[in-house]
Amino acid sequence: MARIVVVGAGVGGLATAARLAATGHEVTVFERADTVGGKLGRHVHDTPAGPFHFDTGPSLLTLPEVFADLFEATGAKLDEYLDLTPLDPIVRHVFPDGSTLDSCADPAEFAARIGATLGDRAAADWQRLWRRAARVWAASSRDVLRRPIDSPRDLAALAWRLGDLTAIAPGRTLRGLGRRHLTDPRLRMLLDRYATYTGADPRRAPAALVAVPYAELTYGGWYLRGGLGTLADALLSRCLDLGVVVQTGTTVTRIDAAGGRVHAVRLAGVTAPVPADVVVANCDALTLYRDLLPSPRRLAGLTDRSLAGFVLLLGVAGASGLAHHNVYFPADYDAEFDAVFGDPGRGVRARPAADPTVLVTVADDPLVRPDGHEAWFVLVNAARQGTSTGAVDWRRPGLAQAYADRVLEVLAARGVDVRDRLLFQEIRTPADLDASTGAPGGAIYGTAGGLLRPANRGPVHGLWLVGGSGHPGGGLPMVTLSAQIVATDIGPAA
């Protein structure tokens, strides 16, 4: 039985802790925040009408079988803890010309909806792309997403062995794939948005990310009654039932690893180190290799630019008639990415996008809002917090409120004006996400955006990296798969 310390009680950390405890290990989780869940955050705003509950992180659960497997591996059933509700539409897409397309988990039905809205040629284009996406998904889900990938050579070797290089198209971008297969600019826009699921720019993101919409639109999108934050509650409950010790409000400041292997972790305000045979870091790779266990070689590889998000939490009187997830696209998608990412090579600074894509999530759930009201989560892509060319200093006085006003103006221009129905408005900037979760710069999916992430196995014996910053990437199912990879690699107690 190993003494295992998990640094961070996000979904990846809790899932890893539960799996390891179920196989006989002694597991302790240290979380710097006062609550568990990490980026799977929650917020309650009380009003005379009643409380409004918000998910401040993920708002969609995909690949539910990944979570069913996690609970079964720890001796429980998913439906004993969580109430899953399938969504149709999964996302309502509203394009610049006013046309609307609702996605769903039935490929034939979605193709029919495309045909009805965008025309038969667009539907045929999508079905041709879908066949290619199926091949990419089959390759990645079988041999990439569930096993360690320690280097680009490992990924290339797998692709050669699978014989799927034609579908995966190494060297081609997601934008290039869309232009090759899709003639309708609205479908190209829809496909581009999936690059942002990994924090990436579609003009630079690899074409293999076509597997992301395939997974969502084949296996469905789900809501958890009471909010996505109930997943954190369920994982904490499993951990405690299995004997995991979870200490919140406890900050790990250092990992001791003399002689090429981990020995202990250091806690803020505590003199004596906490012994550990194994350390699982559920934090950003940048935090791990810059602060907890400085590793210049690993740190040098974290150069990808990743998206952050600007968020409004709105209490709205009355009913809007919106879908659960609604995406309002701008007339010029490229202008948004130019603003959000900037161009440090040419000295072009990142900035708040003047006409951004706006995601509005409205859960039709009486558990999260007073009767006769709606709790709106509004998200736009944003540059990370910072003062460098590729970042924005969101702490600058007046900026957050001015941009919040601009986002509401954009929504109004696109036919969704709620400014006269607002009970309250709260703002969450990338600086706030950085402060609350330790995500460097407020990067939603980790500082290493894109397809290839830092390896799960660390540079010293007994160290592993779990969560959205590492392989296989960000998002709830990928983070949960990273926990499976790490727990399998560590193995059961002897």
TrEMBL record:
SUPFAM superfamilies the UniProt entry points to: FAD/NAD(P)-binding domain
Keyword Oxidoreductase on entry: yes
Domain Amine oxidase: 12-291
Keyword terms: Carotenoid biosynthesis, Oxidoreductase
Keyword hit for Oxidoreductase: yes
Membership in a protein family: Belongs to the carotenoid/retinoid oxidoreductase family.
Protein name: Phytoene desaturase
High-level lineage: Bacteria, Bacillati, Actinomycetota, Actinomycetes, Micromonosporales
